[in-house]
Amino acid sequence: MTFTMKSIFILLLLLLSCNTGDLNVIAEIDNEVDESSALEIVQGSNLLWTIEDAGNKNYLYGLNNKGKVKKKIKITNSKNIDWEDLTSDNSANIYIGDFGNNAKKREKFTIYKVNIDTLTTNKTTAKKIHFTTPKDVKSEDYESFFLLNNNFYIFSKNHKTSLLLKVPNKIGSHKAELITKFKLDGKSTKVTAAAISPNKKTIVLLNHDKLWKITNFLSENFFEGDIEKHDFNHSSQKEGICFKDEHTVYISDERNKANVSYIYSYQFKD
After folding, report:
1. Closest Cα to residue 112, out of 158, 79, 154?
2. What is the pLDDT of residue 270?
3. I want to staple 228 with a disulfide (CB 3.0 to 4.6 A). Which of 83, 121, 194, 213 is the partner?
4. Can you give the pLDDT at residue 164?
């Protein structure tokens, strides 16, 4: 058998990708999803929902436990400027955060509300929640959010000091409220996704090689609570996170050099 340099390189990449540290590989994501930028579980659905980010199609994708696309819903009244995260409410509506801003020039951001009743269709019209940032806050790149007490909490993606904004879950246009500025310890702390547990007592913020677990918070300044760093011992372009249950999260990443992306699970050891 003859091996070319290209085949040896691909083989090495595949072998390296098998070493996922403390993460458990659940499935390889369907090639139809080019850049998975979020994950969400919705009540009443047995699928894992994802989206693609900037410049890709304006679809919600429903994945089964093998990572295959089983449902695809076109959001007809939208354009994927830079879709970055998903969250959902107790009525099983799902929300798409179109607030990515790599060039830091956007002045207006949109959250699309997709009604649960449309998750069985192939296309739908979403309701829109628009927001702008406070007057004294510069335009930043936002890639993560979750819903709590009928407000969206939105995190900026920064090397050093980041922002936490609050936007009401109401159709229409709003001025976001700055809750706090925060800085996570160490390097490579850009927040790429966020989620809150079903019991609303645990928050997770995702980085490429770790997550931050926040508990015992008493106010919407979550960073006054207890913060734990959980290293994965594995680095990739991780962009999606959601809770499977109170002690386990699902995580997704974008395609690596071997052109594969995965859904992982991570279980808290405490």
Report:
1. 79
2. 63
3. 213
4. 98
What pLDDT is stored for residue 8 in this prediction?
A: 46
pLDDT-based confidence at 1, cuts 50/70/90?
Answer: very low
Nearest CA to 152 among 188, 111, 183? 111
Specify the pLDDT at position 119: 77
Length of the chain: 270
Helix (H, G, I), strand (E, B) or coil at 32: coil
Confidence label for 14 from pLDDT (cuts 50, 70 and 90): very low
pLDDT score, position 187: 84
Backbone CA torsion sign across 235, 239, 240, 246: positive
- Whether the pLDDT of residue 186 is over 90: the answer is no
- Can you read off the two tokens belonging to residue 238? 């991780």
Measure the CA–CA gap between 128 and 249, rounded to whole angstroms. 28
Burial of 88 by CB count in 10 Å (0-12 exposed, 13-18 middle, 19+ buried)?
Answer: buried
* Inter-residue contact 82 to 54 (CB < 8 Å): yes
* Structural contact between residues 107 and 139, judged by C-beta atoms closer than 8 angstroms: yes
Torsion sign (Cα): 108, 142, 135, 180: positive
Q: Which residues pair with 36 in a beta bridge?
A: 52
Q: What residue has token string 């996170």?
A: 241
User: DSSP string spanning 257-268?
Assistant: TTS--EEEEEE-
- Paired residues of 155 in beta bridges: 144, 164
Please report, as a single letter, which amino acid is at residue 140: E
The string of DSSP codes covering 122-190 is SEEPPEEEEEE--TTS----EEEEEEETTEEEEEE--SS-EEEEEEES-SEEEE-EEEEEE--SSS---
